[in-house]
Amino acid sequence: MRRFIILLFILLFPLGLATAASAATLGTMTPPQLETFLQNNKGKIVFINFFATWCPPCRAEIPDLLELRKKYSEDQVTMIGISLDQDQDKLETFVQKMEFTYPVYRSDNYLPELYSISSIPHNVIYLPSGELAHNAPGIIPGNELDAIFNSILKEQQ
Predict the structure, then answer these.
(1) Which residue(s) pair with 51 in the sheet?
(2) Contact predicate 49/142, CB 8 Å
(3) Looking at the predicted structure, is the pLDDT value of residue 3 above 70?
(4) Angle at CA of residue 86, ends 80 and 89, nearest 5°
(5) Residue 139 lies in a domain
(6) CB neighbour list of residue 23: distance below 8 Å, 6 or more residues apart
(7) pLDDT for 47-68, tens place per residue?
(8) CA 96 to chain centre
(9) How far apart are CA 140 and CA 151, in angstroms?
(10) Count of H-run helices and E-run strands, the chain
(11) Which domain, by its residues, includes 94?
(12) Which of 78, 114, 146, 147 is the 20 to 30 Å CA partner of 72?
């Protein structure tokens, strides 16, 4: 019986980790992985926030993003954060402290170039059709981003 319980624990423990990590730092995002992510999320608004833990405007923007994540279902809006941090431990601590409710990845060396990122925060919005609608630096205040999402969703109806 004891072996059965230990075996059951060993088999189920990774499932608990996968669930707990769903909104945590999930490794490095590369252009091919991002392309797959975008393809898998066609039919939804895709919002990508490029940020860094050491960036004061980025830190100021994140609470609004966390609130918006609560407002829209995953069927409507998919959000991810992509950090430009090099220090994985610092990023993981930040993600836990901020209690992210959407996945956060570290950027590889090619994503910033792909989106012509010259400063952060940098926000990217894809329409449900997969068309790039917004790719620009700067904070988007929560109420403005909410209005953008609402407008896109109304056009879908």
Answers:
(1) 83
(2) no
(3) no
(4) 80
(5) yes
(6) 100, 101, 102, 103, 104
(7) 999 999 999 999 999 999 999 9
(8) 14
(9) 15
(10) 6, 6
(11) 23-156
(12) 114
Residue 67 lies in a domain: yes
- Whether 148 and 77 have beta carbons less than 8 Å apart is answered as no
11 is a domain residue: no
CA distances in angstroms from 73 to 50, 59, 70, 93, 140, listed in the order given: 21, 23, 7, 26, 20
How many structural domains does the chain have? 1
Domain holding 131: CATH number? 3.40.30.10
Residue type, 58: C
Tens digit of each residue's pLDDT (9 = 90 or more) over 95-116: 999 999 999 999 999 999 999 9
User: Would you state the pLDDT for residue 25?
Assistant: 64
Domain presence at residue 52: yes
Residue 156: pLDDT band with limits 50, 70, 90: confident
Residues shown for the chain? 157
